[in-house]
Amino acid sequence: MISKNIIKFIHSLEQKKNRKTEGLFVAEGPKVVGDLMRRKIPVTIIATAEWINNNNPNCGNIIEVNEEELRKVSFLQHPQQVLALFPIPDKNLPAPVSEMPADKLYIALDGVQDPGNLGTIIRIADWFGIDTILCSHDTADAYNPKVVQATMGSIAGVHLLYTDLADTLSRLNSKMPIYGTLLEGKDIYKEELSSNGVIVFGNEGKGISPTIRRLIDHEILIPCFNSGNTAESLNVAIATAITCSEFRRR
Q1: d(CA 236, CA 209)
Q2: Is the pLDDT of residue 90 over 90?
Q3: Is the pLDDT confidence value at 186 over 70?
Q4: What is the pLDDT of residue 96?
Q5: Which of 57, 91, 201, 239 is the most exposed place for a label (fewest CB within 10 A)?
């Protein structure tokens, strides 16, 4: 039996301020929770007897519920056997920033607002072996339940660092080139790309802000192959996938 207080507490974690206060985020479903549990130990698990018996989870606080009780606590339209609370990791940048490994590839997000886009980008970063994403303070919160679900568990393997993006980029190691995806950029398939550096992706509607644009060393573009009327630009998550694939292919 799950208490009203626990239901109220979990629902409170839908708000960023409460997630920050409690240091917890919500994950749901066998796939997402299972992937997270391979990398993190949950604080609380709320699950059906079937899921508990099949998974034998390592958690000190396990609450067994039926399907109806799970629906009361879930953020999903169709709950899937299990909901878990995980600790939010420390999201502060290492100091000084210049000591971030210069031989790695990073993603930077300048005001990406849509939770689905952010979650997909985190999943893309995980797939392409990019373990750190630098986020401007106005980028969506990575631990929003919608973002967590969209990552399909990849949030456990990618560091999300919220920072003053302009300041951080300006203080990076000089050996780290900064690439930016811009409509006036040069064809990504013809440009020379490095195996390290930072790739900046901008807001869904406004693109990369003028402040960040001034810090970009190489402006790149995914060319359109449709000569007729078509969309003005690609969805930012799709653009991230294509760009990361091209950098890794080289």
Answers
A1: 14
A2: no
A3: yes
A4: 55
A5: 91
User: Phi/psi of residue 31, each to 5°?
Assistant: -65, -55
Which amino acid type is present at position 215? L
Q: Could you identify the residue written with the tokens 């210069």?
A: 102
Query: Residue 129 carries which side chain, given as an amino acid letter?
Result: G
Taking only the tens place, the pLDDT of each residue in 39-86 is: 889 999 999 999 999 998 888 899 999 999 999 999 998 999 999 999
CB 216 within 8 A of CB 208: yes
Neighbours of 121 (CB within 10 A): 32
In contact, 221 and 182? CB cutoff 8 Å:
yes
Q: Which residue has the tokens 């399909």?
A: 152
Per the CB < 8 A criterion, the answer to whether 116 and 146 are in contact is: yes
What average pLDDT does range 108-113 have in this prediction? 97
- Please say whether the beta carbons of 43 and 98 come within 8 A: no
pLDDT tens digit sequence for 29-38: 999 999 999 8
**Cβ neighbours of 240 (radius 10 Å):** 27
- The number of C-alpha atoms within 13 Å of 205 and in the hemisphere containing its C-beta is 2
